[in-house]
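Page 42, continued from yesterday. The earlier attempt failed because a stray header line got pasted into the input along with the sequence. Redoing it now with the clean sequence only.
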Amino acid sequence: MSVKLNLKKLSFLVYGLGSSGHSVIKYFKKNNISNYFVWDDNFKLRERFKSKNVSNLSKSLKEVDYIVLSPGISLKKTKFKKILNKYKKKIITDIDLFYLTNKNLKSIVVTGSNGKSTTCKIITHLLKKNRLNVMLGGNIGTPVLNLENKKNTFFVIETSSFQLSHSKFIHPNYAILLNITNDHLDWHGSMKEYIRSKLRIFNLQEKDNFALVNSRLRNIFKKNNYQSKLISLKLNLYKKIKFKIKNRYLKSFINDENMNFVYTLSKHLKISDKLFIKSMNTFKGLEHRYETFLSKKNIVFINDSKATSFEASKFAISSEKNIYWILGGLPKDKDNIDLKYLKKNIVKSYIIGKNIDFFKNQLKGKVDFTITKNIKNSIIRILKDIKLFKKKNNIVLLSPSAASFDQFKNFENRGNEFKKLCKLYAKKYI
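This time it went through. Structure tokens are written below.
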């Protein structure tokens, strides 16, 4: 049974005033929950909420019932980590509040190192085509507390390891764990902690809930004796209908794992193969995720800016040939670029960003590369190299294998800059 709490009788400290923190405050106001306070390590941010600002953080943390922590704040790195860890049991998330205040939710929660956003979007599209009321939110962009709970609505929620690490009241009808690879180790402190945070989604489920995991994680699920019911993936069944899907984006190898999960879910929801195929053929891919945005003569331009680790880049590289690969930025902790089976697909690589030495060392002896420092130089050099190498079909791929913050505001900003410059220089050089 889900936990029932009267939030109006409880006290809260909203810690972190980013988008999720603001959504919590807005939600409290909307639902007449007045016993809350705010804190952000940034003085200027918390000054905007003077009436709710705390003067003594230690005292407030001790006295409140719950701490609603922003997902961006790591207990390993934050300025006040000592005192936050002391009251760790009080920490909840905005998604917890969503479940606490919305009874009888029908929800599908998706997590994993790679493919979360794409899978959530595909599921949402499928359910809408099946004439269900669907709302999408969470880590994908819209905070869940901004979603309206209308009658007979299915909520598709993307959750990060940050959110799951502290969650206590989430209990999805369907929990999907796509995969686990090296990611966010600086935030979690170790791979063990990262895995633990991802698996928490099953700890929080109830007996009548369902879990979907890939074959590599099945044994871990069984070993932990979770109370939710395991749904076996229908890989062989999906392969039998894959040829009927005409959508280039979904047919590519890059989306096989995502599609296997979605198809398995569709069978459990009793959605027919006919409707599934029809829905998939009308699905439009996500921006910045293996996004084909320009084709000119013998050159295809692909924006995969969302690939912030090599594990994420592998999918795009394995799906194409004759690749001119732009990479670089802020690499993930302990990331390793293994091109053993992929180097045959790469004509040449172009290193951008401020961590040039890292990428040089990773590529040396594996593939031909040049240092271009930025996207503009990379595109100009690539278009010249394409003329030089004279291959029939060419792929210009931005798949950085790194975060963007050394040169850009975020991966969206990086992807948009890439698309703008490709269109500009394609006119000049092709």
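Notes: DSSP finds 18 helices and 16 strands in the chain.
Reminder to self: strip header lines before submitting.
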